[in-house]
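To illustrate the input format used throughout this study, we show a single complete record. The first block contains the structure-token representation of the backbone; no residue identities are included at this stage. The design step must infer an amino acid for every position from geometry alone.
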């Protein structure tokens, strides 16, 4: 699923070198996290946790990380991020993606803090990629 500020998906655990006899898939989320200063620059973070096919007997408190969650900071000093999703049928970019089929493309726009642009920001070139399914799915 995708929103303007967050992308979440399931991927093979081998993608991040975390495959074991028990763990073969990971829940992955990429988003912007801010510290105590909600208005200051944040960090682009990738979180991965083992994907379980069943619900836990004792649900976690809201906001608590799943057991085995690992976080990786991809980029510091980020003012904002925006994900958008290209629909393969109407050929338009959307701020959200909830359809059962994958979007044709995913775009990530990053604005870094500390540049010489408006409000001290710096736009990076957009990153665009085509999501793929594993064979047999």
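Output of the design step:
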């Amino acid at each position: 699923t995708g929103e303007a500020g967050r992308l979440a998906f399931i991927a093979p655990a081998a993608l991040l070198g975390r495959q074991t006899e028990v763990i073969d898939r990971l829940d992955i989320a990429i988003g912007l996290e801010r510290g105590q200063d909600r208005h200051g620059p944040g960090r682009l973070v990738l979180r991965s946790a083992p994907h379980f096919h069943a619900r836990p007997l004792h649900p976690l408190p809201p906001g608590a990380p799943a057991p085995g969650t690992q976080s990786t900071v991809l980029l510091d000093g980020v003012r904002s991020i925006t994900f958008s999703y290209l629909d393969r049928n109407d050929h338009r970019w959307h701020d959200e993606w909830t359809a059962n089929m994958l979007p044709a493309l995913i775009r990530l726009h990053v604005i870094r803090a500390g540049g010489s642009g408006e409000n001290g920001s710096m736009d990076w070139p957009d990153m665009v990629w085509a999501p793929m399914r594993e064979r047999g799915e």
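Structural context for interpreting the output: The beta strands are 2-3, 6-12, 25-33, 42-50, 70-86, 93-94, 105-113, 121-123, 127-129. DSSP finds no helices and nine strands in the chain.
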